Amino acid sequence: MKKALIAAVALSALSPFGASAAERTLTISVYAFAQDDFKQLVYEPFEAKCGCKLVVETGNSVERLAKMEANKASPVVDLAAVSMADALAAARAGLIDKVDTAKLSNFAKLYDIAKDPNGDGMSVGYTFYATSIAYRSDKMKIDSWADLLKPEYVAHVAFPNVTTNQGPPALYMLGQALGKDTPDLNGPIEALGEKKDDIVTFYEKSSQLVQLMQQEEIWAAPIGRFSWAGFTKLDVPVAWATPKEGQTGGMNVLVVTKGSKNQDLALQFMDFWLSTETQTKLAEKLIDSPANREVKLSEAAANNLTYGEDTAKSLKLIPSAVALDNRAGWLKTWNDKVGQ
Predict the structure, then answer these.
(1) Cβ–Cβ < 8 Å for 135, 239
(2) 3-class secondary structure for 49-110?
(3) How many Cα neighbours within 13 Å face the side chain of 289?
(4) Residue 161 and residue 139: Cα distance in Å, rounded?
(5) How does DSSP classify residue 155?
(6) In the chain, pLDDT over 90 holds for what percent of residues?
(7) How does strand 79-83 pair with strand 25-30?
(8) What DSSP state is assigned to residue 157?
(9) pLDDT digits over 309-334, tens only?
(10) For the chain, how far is it from start to end, CA to CA, in angstroms?
């Protein structure tokens, strides 16, 4: 019996996460997107490695943050995947803790843009995407975001509605191009309002754009890189713009719940998600663009994702505080000037 006990202790010491993880459950809150792939590539491999059990909760950001708020006194969720802005909202509400990056062996491998996205130490980026302009290269030339409003082009443009994920970032870059880059986005919204009768549509779903471009109803539209693959399959020439003002986009981050009893296990899972191996698998399946700069992708995957050091450095993301503090104002101005 004594020998068996000694052997068991020795085995637990060799375990990468120790014996305590074997009896623990980690609850994570994530987007509903691609969950079958995440189960195969992330969740099950981590469970096998740690000897623990993952409970996965999914839903939109509003629902998931509301649940975290409702259970603030006795947290149910240990780790959450949210947007940069939602991470700042959670931090302001006292729902999350600082991330102990000293416990993340893969932290140093991340692009700088992903290491501390909100500058408060409360989140770590696991994926990001570029937003730029998909355009018919045989019909037009895009050197600037302001080119979308040129008289010869504007009647062939689709622009994202302000209520979409792509709306504010596209307005942000249009404002920079017009020299009207105040946080209230009044300048670019007013400029769009002046051209609203010319613009083909203020779209709400990027899925409709591929057909519109195939039918030559539009020549250009700001889109997220995750929508790019559909355009590459068209039988018309379509290019991805690299405007002189740069590209914008968005980032999703991982946060650890304040008061969670499983913070160490949450950090172990976070580290696993950020590893070169896991990020490569997710990227090759075209699920997430890698935040880990050591990831090397096939040409096919790289062409359909936001990838590479130069691209990461070129992204001009809307600061989360600007987004949180101005959302209501953006919508009011949009409704007043554009009316859609």
Answers:
(1) yes
(2) HHCCEEEEEECCHHHHHHHHHHCCCCCCCCEEEEEHHHHHHHHHCCCEECCCHHHCCCHHHE
(3) 27
(4) 24
(5) G
(6) 85
(7) parallel
(8) B
(9) 999 998 999 999 999 999 999 999 99
(10) 75
- Give the list of residues 6+ apart from residue 208 with CB closer than 8 angstroms, or none: 201
Residue 236 DSSP SS3: coil
Nearest to 196 by CA among 223, 141, 159: 159
Bridge partner residues of 30 (DSSP) = 58
**290 near 307, Cβ under 8 Å?**
yes
Cα 298 to Cα 301: distance, rounded to the nearest angstrom: 5
d(CA 191, CA 181): 12
Supply the pTM of this predicted model.
0.84
pLDDT tops 50 at residue 127: yes
| Whether residue 211 has pLDDT greater than 70 | yes
- Alpha carbon distance 171, 246 (integer Å): 13
- Please give the structure tokens belonging to residue 56: 């996965």
d(CA 279, CA 292): 7
How far is the CA of 156 from the CAs of 201, 204, 209, 219, in angstroms?
9, 17, 12, 5
**Encoded tokens for 304:** 């359909």
Q: Tokens standing for 148?
A: 């979308």
